[in-house]
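wait is this the right file?? whatever heres the structure
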């Protein structure tokens, strides 16, 4: 039996930390486009990387708090236009493509979002290394893991500072295109400002029939969350990927 087994590094059910995590963060920070979206006061990528690491290194991977990321956010905060934001749920790739062709932005276009995009990370008490074997899974281990709390904090800020029309890309091939337990459902939708209009797009996968619609019960639930907040709601369904991206 190996040493790592005894040390418990393999006990979580989620993917382990991404190999070369620090190197990737540093590289992405160094090459994040200065001009367009970031008014980033000259950023110190060394410092940003260190703040990211010290948010979770040596800590219990199930006891993440928003506070842990405070310093990182202070250092690396960047702004993107408040009226060009695209949210998504189960449609990360499609939403990214849509944003790109329309000149809009997703959370992954902000500095912090781009640093962490697609990565996984967690530490271990008593160790200064990342746990590359496993990290806590939201469902099977704990909700207050470092990955989840990171995306929650960023998502909350992204949603609450949005203005004008905000778009959300949802998967119309699912039985419930809107899921109250998703980050969009539990963090972003409930934090939109009253003046905002939310435009939802229900896009179904090529080769799959649409299963949910703007009049389905999941979207009704979204509608009720929004109407409590005085957020206007527009919904379009039955769109194929190509129709949605504007190629016919
Ligand atoms: N890279 C890796 N993981 C991510 C990323 C990312 N760029 N963004 C979010 N995650 C994590 C979160 O923990 C999230 O719950 O992956 C999960 C994706 O789950 P989905 O059910 O597909 O979507 P949802 O939970 O609704 O989260 C996506 O939140 O991150 C914001 O603005 C983003 O609107 C988007 C929504």
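ok assuming it is, sequence goes like this
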């Amino acid at each position: 039996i190996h040493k790592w087994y005894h040390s418990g590094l393999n006990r979580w059910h989620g993917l382990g930390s991404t190999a070369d995590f620090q190197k990737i963060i540093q590289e992405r920070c160094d090459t994040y486009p200065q001009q367009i979206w970031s008014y980033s006061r000259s950023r110190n990528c060394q410092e940003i990387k260190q703040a990211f690491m010290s948010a979770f290194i040596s800590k219990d991977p199930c006891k993440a708090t928003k506070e842990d990321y405070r310093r990182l956010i202070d250092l690396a905060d960047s702004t993107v236009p408040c009226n060009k934001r695209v949210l998504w749920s189960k449609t990360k790739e499609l939403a990214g493509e849509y944003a790109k062709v329309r000149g809009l932005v997703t959370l992954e276009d902000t500095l912090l979002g781009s640093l962490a995009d697609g990565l996984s990370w967690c530490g271990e008490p008593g160790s200064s290394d990342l746990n590359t074997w496993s990290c806590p899974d939201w469902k099977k281990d704990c909700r207050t893991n470092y990955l989840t709390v990171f995306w929650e904090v960023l998502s909350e800020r992204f949603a609450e500072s949005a203005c004008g029309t905000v778009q959300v890309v949802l998967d119309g091939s699912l039985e419930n295109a809107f899921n109250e337990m998703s980050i969009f459902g539990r963090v972003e939708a409930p934090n939109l400002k009253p003046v905002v209009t939310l435009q939802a797009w229900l896009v179904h996968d090529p080769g799959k029939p649409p299963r949910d619609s703007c009049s389905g019960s999941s979207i009704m639930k979204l509608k009720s969350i929004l109407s409590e907040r005085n957020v206007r709601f527009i919904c379009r369904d039955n769109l194929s990927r190509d129709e949605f991206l504007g190629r016919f």
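Residues 87-90, 92, 107-108, 117-118, 147-148, 151, 155, 158, 182-184, 188 surround adenosine-5-diphosphoribose (CB under 6 Å). so i think its the right one actually
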